[in-house]
Amino acid sequence: MPLRAYLALGFSLLALCQALPAAAAGDANVAALQVALRARGLYDGAVDGLAGPRTGAAVRSFQRRAGIAVDGVAGPQTRSALGRRWRRSLGSRVLHQGKAGWDVAGLQFLLASHGFPSGPFDGGFGPRTEAAVTRFQSWARLSADGVAGPATIAALVSARVGSPIRLAWPIRAPLGDRFGPRGNRFHTGLDFPAPYSAAVTAAGSGRVVKAGWDGGGWGYLVVIRHGYGVRTMYAHLSAVAVRRGQHIATGALVGRVGSSGTSTGPHLHFEVRLRGAAVDPLTALG
């Protein structure tokens, strides 16, 4: 089946998903441009897929450096001047390990936006990008081969999903970093800066499936399984107040704020996962 038909199939999935607000969505091509400009040391903002003033300024800087018309628009001439690596549009070829360029950067951005980040946005298809593609394919009920062909790209251009259930706020604290791009990476949850040992409570009723130390950088971590494929995560805790297998109610104490694991200060890192995909917690919090 041609790519165009797969894309049409992907867009037909919109009715099955709860889409995020349009303003929150970045464009994969703009994100790829930002990655290309970062590679040349001209852009140091977030790879967010939004064509803002910083991206335009970086394009103009590159155009002046390349000796081409300076209009701030990344048209064919600018794409050509960026070099061969940055000329392949997303969907123009099948992507797998060893590929690199504009289309790979766009793929990495779409994977992260769907809750399957692969590390830094760098335009290189390595083992981590392959693993992210495989996880997304399993989530989307596609053949999980780690190769980003037409069906995978079609599924990735469909609307991003949110939480199918409502949840309560897990802490009384100001909201810090949000879900979305942060530098050349993707932040998969919400951060709540709070005093050390502040109370962290369950965002919904459910069963505790993890409670204790996590070796992946989360430090002391609690994970609660709710209904409809939803799990919530509470990371970087200083103390855990629940045990694995325990049923808890909304608002029950699960732990205390800390700075354990990979953390630069006391805060709660809170995530919502839908069948393994990180989704914006703000789509769930009432």
Strand content: 15-25%
The ordered string of helix (H) and strand (E) elements is: HHHHHHHEEEEEEEEEEE
The geometry reads as: elongated
Distance between the termini: 42 Å
List how many beta strands DSSP finds: 11
Average pLDDT, to the nearest integer? 91
By DSSP (H or I, 4+ residues per run), the number of helices equals 7
CATH superfamily of the largest domain: PGBD-like superfamily/PGBD
Radius of gyration in whole Å, from Cα? 20 Å
- Helical residues, percent: 25-40%
Describe the main β-sheet briefly: 9 strands, antiparallel
Uncertain runs are 1-24
User: How many distinct domains?
Assistant: 2
CATH third-level topology of the largest domain? Muramoyl-pentapeptide Carboxypeptidase, domain 1
In words, what does this structure look like?
Helices cover 26% and strands 20% of the residues. It is of the alpha+beta class and 286 residues long. It has two domains: 3-156, PGBD-like superfamily/PGBD (Muramoyl-pentapeptide Carboxypeptidase, domain 1, Orthogonal Bundle), CATH 1.10.101.10; 180-283, Glucose Permease (Domain IIA), CATH 2.70.70.10. The strands form two sheets. Strands 3, 4, 5, 6, 7, 8, 9, 10 and 11 form a nine-stranded antiparallel sheet that branches. The protein is elongated. It starts with a helix and ends in a 7-residue tail after the last strand. Mean pLDDT is 91; it is low at 1-24.
